[in-house]
Design a protein that fits this description.
The structure is a homodimer of 291-residue chains. Chain A has 291 residues and is α/β, with parallel strands linked by helices. Chain A folds into two domains: 63 residues, Spermidine Synthase, Chain: A, domain 2; 221 residues, Rossmann fold. The first copy, chain A, has a seven-stranded mixed sheet with strand order 9-8-7-10-11-13-12, with helices on both faces. In chain A, strands 3-4-5-6 form a four-stranded antiparallel sheet, with helices on one face. A two-stranded antiparallel sheet of chain A has the order 1-2. In chain A, a hairpin with a 3-residue loop joins β4 and β5. Chain A starts with a helix and ends with a helix. The interface between A and B is large, with 45 and 45 residues. Chains A, B: It catalyses: S-adenosyl 3-(methylsulfanyl)propylamine + putrescine = S-methyl-5'-thioadenosine + spermidine + H(+). Chains A, B: It comes from Mesotoga infera.
Chain lengths: 291, 291
């Protein structure tokens, strides 16, 4: 049996080609547990010998269980702690449930809507990604199967925080979530002091999209700031996020005390990281025009 | 000719297996320009279709020309700006010249000693890595071909700053530069207000070494702090560095004005990044015991 296991280990390799196609990450696959072509995208889940389960959409790594906390904590807690009293939160994408799990760590949140276009992602996550899907049945959560760009159009002055947990702009349905029209509709769906946050790609392989997303968001929201976090199995390990805000500044209006009083377990985010994440290296200052 | 070029591009692949062997980065090779087994290590230099030249020692990527600035600027400017008046700087390792180039951007530096054990790295860098080796003949630079652990033992109360630009602890001669004995000798070779800084690996694939290096350095220096930077083609993209200091605290004693007055071009480091880099995610706080 051990020999057979070893053969499997050595024979299956997942290779993600990064933008440009000239580099990428490879990961050994212990076993492929799920593989399905949904109406929206190809979904693969495999077990890695060290990183636990790995979710892949259209050939792009969404996360490994070993490092998903970096991405999900930083995508969610930075905008949530920017808003002084977030009650209604909308998550667009993120059908795996990782962002929802982080949102529901906040007791102030009364309603968290998860709008995922692809029901097969939710189904697969429930079955194979137990750490991700743990809050999908929380009574404070509402699951909606709809294109996020269409869904957000229905609301005016409704949400305190909108979090966009999308795939890449060039994969699956991700493209809809990087248009100016979408950002305008998010602005309208937010209450008068609402906070928007989106993942906005990596600035080494995909700097074009980083600049496009930032410029579009900053053309819609009066306060706009980019921040970064490590995300060790994403392209380049350097991930950007962009906050668009109507009233609250994520740095100047940040109340450190709320984080210090926060009881839920966090493995990445803390009050120092919140502010430090907005310090941009010079090449990112230039890319975004933020100094 | 174009067809031939394309064939080459598609057929040569560099694959770096990260610690554990279950994941890694692959890069296409446009052409291999240098490959040599020196007495110390295997040295390869190839041209990548996007990233320029790539230096590889014992199968481990030292840098690509596209992102080396992240590593070299953060390894050098954080300790140099921690010291108020760095005159004598010792670089251990770094035979490519990248760290030396950054050190010599500081006009206060009168003497920069580069101690590289492997003369073939220096020779190859002069020939193929023009952006790295640009300052190797600067009159303020002294090149020494010697094992850094042996060299540093000769000095007492000599240097203002020591920068350790080593290979991994498990590769080539890197292991000597991760011992407590070496850190003790660096302490002795530093002047009474000297500052030490070393690259201390990535905390995703190599967290064991991150903890070992930090604990050893903190057992020798009264002030010890870890910081991080992105380094997009290193394992996980998340790199750690550890400062050991006799007198000056890299955060409390940091003089932002000196950075604002600094004229040399920088693509990563700035005064906000200096302080922000010391904000550690929770899992790194736990790994190092720093809160």
């Amino acid at each position: 049996m051990e020999d057979r296991e070893l053969r499997t280990l050595n024979h299956m390799l997942f290779m993600e080609h990064y933008t440009g196609g000239n580099a990428g990450l490879f990961m050994k696959m212990k076993r492929l547990v799920y593989s399905y072509q949904s109406p929206y995208q190809r979904i693969d889940i495999f077990e890695h010998p060290e990183f636990g389960m790995v979710l892949v959409l259209d050939g792009i790594t969404m996360f490994t269980e070993a490092d998903e906390f970096m991405y999900h904590e930083m995508l969610v807690h930075v905008p949530i702690f920017t808003h002084p009293d977030p009650k209604r939160v909308l998550i667009i994408g993120g059908g795996d449930g990782g962002s929802l799990r982080e949102v529901l760590k906040h007791n102030s949140v009364e309603e968290a809507v998860l709008c995922e276009v692809d029901p097969y992602v939710i189904e697969a996550s429930r079955k194979y990604l137990k750490e991700m899907s743990i809050e999908l049945d929380n009574p404070r959560a509402t699951l909606v199967n709809e294109n996020g760009a269409d869904y957000v159009r229905k609301f005016k002055d409704r949400f305190d925080v909108i979090v966009v947990d999308s795939t890449d702009p060039t994969a699956g349905e991700g493209g809809h979530l990087f248009t100016k029209e979408f950002y305008v509709n998010c602005y309208a769906a937010l209450r008068k002091d609402g906070v928007f946050c989106a993942e906005t790609e990596d600035p080494f392989y995909d700097k074009g999209w980083v600049a496009i997303a930032f410029n579009r968001i900053s053309s819609v929201f009066p306060i706009c700031r980019m921040y970064t976090s490590f995300m060790t199995t994403y392209p380049s390990g350097m991930w950007t996020y962009t906050i668009g805000s109507k009233t609250f500044d994520p740095i100047k209006d940040f109340d450190e005390e709320r984080v210090l009083d926060f009881n839920a377990p966090l493995r990445y985010y803390n009050s120092e990281i919140h502010t430090a994440a907005f310090a941009l290296p010079n090449f990112l200052r230039e890319l975004t025009g933020q100094f």
